[in-house]
């Protein structure tokens, strides 16, 4: 944990700040190891304080090694603690620090200047340690196991929400602490919805069924998508599936340090565009995954951050045709020193479910 505290101090010094205040849950957990719901990390060049209320003091003492634990209360609010420390310039997470927070701080701390950290903490989190990668890999393996568990249940007459529920139940039963997002189970014409969250639609013969889901293991997320056909696939379904698979595998093979998300996105987009389906691929190729399901690096048309060994990303192109259906294939991938490692082990060939 001291290493992570030192990284915060590097940010503090680079930006010429007196302190950094962290309370976005994912950043707070990363820099302090605290898993509760209320708390603040306050770092200066000489002090590391974890500030929380009575409910979490004992937990913080057990989890937040290297920190002085400070209890906050109505009589001793966060602003009073900061005032006593005589801090004048504080770095904040501008994407999480609300207008209400800012007004409250500036009313009570008239001499304090708040400075945006400009995503510096998220950039630090983008490169995972081996321990973090192991947690993500475990979450990915639970998703793989869940796919094989649920596959026999996908048949005509089953409701999309039943499949989503069974996926989550299986992963929780086998070690996950929760779902990493609202699962997408989109069948038939609904599979043309890139974010078609599971509905009451009944699965029918001939449907594409897209399953996009993941779980949380020890705080870290997984994310995987597979698309199957209920019964025999028709020629158009086979063509679309083959196109997405080619785009996915072509972009995947290009993953390595030095490549940007923008470059990877363009590789997949060209494959789909050359086959005449460019207008039906309207989202980015992927995203970073870690304590959050969507984090740095961006793997899309604005992804200018170069890949670095230890980053975990998704590669997930898709084709979505209104009133027909759609296909997405997604793998969870670790960038390595000389390329990549795929964490999603579920096969990607087109599955036609016998009915």
UniProtKB/TrEMBL annotation:
Keywords: Aminopeptidase, Hydrolase, Metal-binding, Protease. It comes from the Bacteria. GO terms for molecular function: aminopeptidase activity; metal ion binding; metalloexopeptidase activity. Its EC number is 3.4.11.9. The keyword Metal-binding applies. Belongs to the peptidase M24B family. This is Xaa-pro aminopeptidase PepP. The gene is pepP.
